[in-house]
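Why do we care about 3D structure at all? Because function follows from shape, and shape follows, mostly, from sequence. That is the central idea of this module. The next example makes it concrete: a single protein chain, its amino acid sequence, and then its structure expressed as tokens.
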Amino acid sequence: MKFISESESTSLISHESAFEAVRKALVAAASADAKVFPAVIAHASDRQNTFSLKSGSTPELAGLKIGSFWPDNPAKGRPRHSSTIVLIDQANGRIGAVIEASAANAYRTAAADAVAANVLARPESETLAIFGAGNQALFECCALARILPLKRLHVVARNRDKANEFTTKLLSLGVKLDIHISTAEEACRQADIIVTATPSRVPLFKAEWVRPGTHIAGMGSDARGKQELPSEIYERAKLFCDLPEQSIQIGEFQHVRERIESGEFVLNAIGTVLEGRCSGRIARDDITVFDSSGIALQDLYIGQFLLSRSKVAPSP
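And the structure:
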């Protein structure tokens, strides 16, 4: 068994490598040969501490990702979130690798946003609105700035001090954008791309604020009850996600599940767009929505990449 520590996986991952790994994962997710099994979302001994298990398999890979959220950790000098990838040896069923991947998970989530935006957003998109000022929002901005000619960023956050801190961190990472701290309405009315990266359980903006041609990515809904986007926007948008059967259970589209299952709304896996089996944006004024609930195949492909670059020898 190989073990890759958090420090090593962090040193190996990048936005470029995460983009390629996640793109492969999203294409695989839309194929008949891959399986993504229902996510398990549970609580620990202390009910405020939660963890999730996301598992899947392809003809080459099988395994799972364990994600945890311990809200009191910052007071102890530790991050709230952690992530561990477990790859199963296909030859014998034993654990082939255990990979600490908390930082890699942030790259992986942002990469899904970037892969979708690369085919759904207008190529000339210059203005991004980001809802949230946490760690994941930083990664989302960096991933999108790498693939699109972004010039302006509107940050929407409940706490202005955190928004200012977010701006400082983003600039320190070398992302050169004209940054504004804005209200939700100001941001949406000017945005070419709207990205939400929060744990919200209520919509963060109104559908009427969204301009024709906008691309929207909901990155935070990964459990029942979470919601960042106004359902009203779906009536005039083209809808996409990482995996439809999961998205309608724990993602943004759980809130319109009946309308999707009845055929009133059409929801397509982004992998079908990447393969050219489904159209994405057709007209300049199309509004596109991508929901990322996060699927196990993303973690397996990220894990495979990290394993291929690791220098760690197997344990005896």
